[in-house]
Amino acid sequence: MLTPISDTYHILLRDIGDTLENGRVRAYQAANTFLVQTYWHIGRHIVEYEQQGNEKAEYGTYLFDRLARDLRDRYGEIFSRSSLIYIRKLYLLYPIGESLIHQLTWTHYIELLKIEDSIERSFYEKQTVLERWSVRELKRQKKTSLFQRLALGRNKKEILRLAAEGNKPDTPANLVRDPYVLEFLGLSDLHLHSESELENLLISKLQYFLLELGKGFAFIGRQYRITFDNRHYRVDLVFYHRILKCFVLVDLKTGRLDHGDVGQMNMYLNYFRKEENMADDNEPVGIILTAEKDEVLAEYALGGLTNQIFVSKYQFYLPDKRELEAQILAVLDTAEHEKDNDAFESPSTG
Hints:
By secondary structure, this protein is an alpha/beta fold. The chain has 14 helices and 6 strands. It has helices at 7-58, 63-75, 81-93, 106-113, 118-131, 135-143, 146-151, 156-165, 172-175, 195-204, 206-213, 259-276, 295-302, 321-345; strands at 180-181, 217-228, 231-241, 246-256, 285-292, 308-315.
């Protein structure tokens, strides 16, 4: 006959399990940190070898081929020619070893090393840590040109801050992206979609939609019913933002934005402020997702409203990264040009 198990034994078992799980996580993180640091030192050895003049004979021809072959012979199938090239690049792009971030695995760093632009690379590095992206999620955000989308409409100072700090959802404006990329739905703009069809598909791919929305969003419900004056209304999608401590209402529009859509969202926000908000909740935020956005109409429809309403386009295809990059470079170049002109026109003090 088994001895009865006390409650304290269950607590003991739980505590051991928690400790074991935490230990495994920390051991995995420590192993990844050590691996990245080891590769950084290997990269340093390769670069120092090249700087001694040996690269003239071997770099670009036989060095990586021979190194990969000899290292495999000595240590097994750990190194390939391409992995050695990335290891060398790790040292060149992060010459200060202390700048390596321990939360990032070597596989994360491989994706970051593929980004040639240092400003863009810095953004994805910071954002991966902020939002705890897996490698798969990092690849997706790169593919959808998240940095370029967030940088649009910002001046040089704001773009550099975005790269240095990542996009922190500390204001409602920082929550919103324009456009939202919904390529994960596998749809085409050529196909006519109803709002209910679009909503169903977003719910079926909620994990991907939350990734596109960004950090801090928690799903509350769909077709959220609100009632007043004996009439029922339904908000398409309702979220709660854990960081800003506010409701975020999303209204889906498959056609063009109409001024009535803004009025409807304004009414929803007024209702949530009075009927749904708790004492410590902040003002609710509204996002109207529309297939077509008329900038002038949006400006006039939103003007003078006290509620925080944003209008963004959605699209089912990946953005043209080169076009976005050109627009951002134009902003950075214009800022540099204006700076040079100011310096040229300033009177000499000598």
